[in-house]
Amino acid sequence: MTPRQRLWAFLAGMAGLAAFYLWGLAGLPGLGNYPGPYGFIINQIAVRQTNATGVVSAVNFEYRGFDTVGEEFILFVAATGVATVLRHLRGERDRPPRDEAADRRVPDTSEAVRMTALILTGPILLMGWYLASHAQTSPSGGFQGGVVLATGFILVYLAGLFLAFERISPVDITDAVEAVGAGGFAAIGISAVVMGLAFLTNFLPLGITPGAVSSSGTIALISFFVGVEVAAAFILIVSELLDQTLLIRQESR
Amino acid sequence: MSSPAHLAVVTPYTVTPALMDALQVTILVLVAAGATMVVLTRVPARQVIALSVYGLLLAVLFLAFQAPDVALSELTVGAVALPILLLLALAKVRRREK
């Protein structure tokens, strides 16, 4: 294929894509004009049915909880995949965590970055915990909370404390915590089946006050487990990649 | 771009529809500019920083369009987690090139 033919093939493809894209755009409802019935129905009934005022969480962990199980396991499998691909192969060994090119002048982590990261670590962890455990009351949820929690751990690394990051998130424990998070979600769903209800039926008491922390039954519980799973998965992925930068890939001898 | 009249709830924090429209248009333009900036940045390490700023802009966009939960996700994943992963990958690639 000459460059000229390739250009024409590209242009034809682009023209087709643009045509379908514009056709699709023309069929979209205008901004703010939601045509479907479900959004309005959910707005009417969600708080009464679930006692959760975080209606997005009620949708995620209750009305379409089955989809969320799938999404949860996407992340679980992704973390497992990273851990598998980046495992130590034969002939690979860990680089000792010391500078191997001492003559090269590497700037230290600046005091400003270090201080900011250390000061933020506590509040960020608290924020993540709050988000993961208050899905039923306000816009938040396990996914957001979990990622924020993981960010708290990453801040320790950003403060220049790589060894501390490794110590507070050993891979074995992170692995186990991730499994507990993912398994907890599935276990809640299966518990309902054991009780003779449909998978993921909200079988816990919903509480009396809508939006109270103790309200919404399994929604709060599932969100918490999702938070645990997501936090562990992200920490696992980041620490596996960090390990890679310390790994020496030896040629076979 | 204003919400339908039957959904309007007036609170002390309510802004006029015109102001909200202006905010939404502004942030849409900023997001478009941010995306262009990411594409036009050719140095990978700088591109990651640009991408992080772009993630922050997207988070504000989602907030302006009344999706605070998506904004939270975008803030943490787009502005923090993804750039960290990319920076680590860059560090690894550079080490191998030496």
What would your notes on this structure say?
The complex is a heterodimer of chains A (about 250) and B (about 100). Chain A has nine helices and two strands. By secondary structure, chain A is mainly alpha-helical. Chain A has one domain (about 35-95, about 110-250). Chain A has a two-stranded antiparallel ribbon. The longest helix of chain A has 28 residues, at about 220-245. The model of chain A has no long low-confidence stretch (mean pLDDT about 85). Chain B has one domain (about 15-95). The radius of gyration of chain B is 18 Å and the shape is elongated. In chain B, about 20% of the residues are buried. The interface between A and B is medium-sized, with 23 and 20 residues.
Largest sheet of chain A: 2 strands, antiparallel
Task: Return the domain count of chain B.
Answer: 1
Averaged pLDDT of chain A:
85
- Tell me the helix content of chain A: 55-70%
In total, the number of domains of chain A comes to 1
| Total of DSSP H or I helical runs spanning 4+ residues of chain B | 3
Q: Calculate the terminal CA-CA distance of chain A, rounded to whole Å.
A: 43 Å
What is the global morphology of chain B? elongated
Beta-strand residue percentage of chain A: under 5%
Q: Tally of extended strands of chain A?
A: 2
Give me the Rg of chain A, rounded.
24 Å
By oligomeric state, this entry counts as heterodimer
Order of helices and strands of chain A: HHHHEHHHHHE
User: Biggest interface between protein chains, with counts per chain?
Assistant: A-B, 23 and 20 residues
Helix content of chain B: over 70%
- Ends of chain B: how far apart? 53 Å
Low-confidence stretches of chain B: none
The mean pLDDT of chain B is 86
Q: What global shape of chain A is seen? A: globular
Q: Strand arrangement, largest sheet of chain A?
A: 1-2
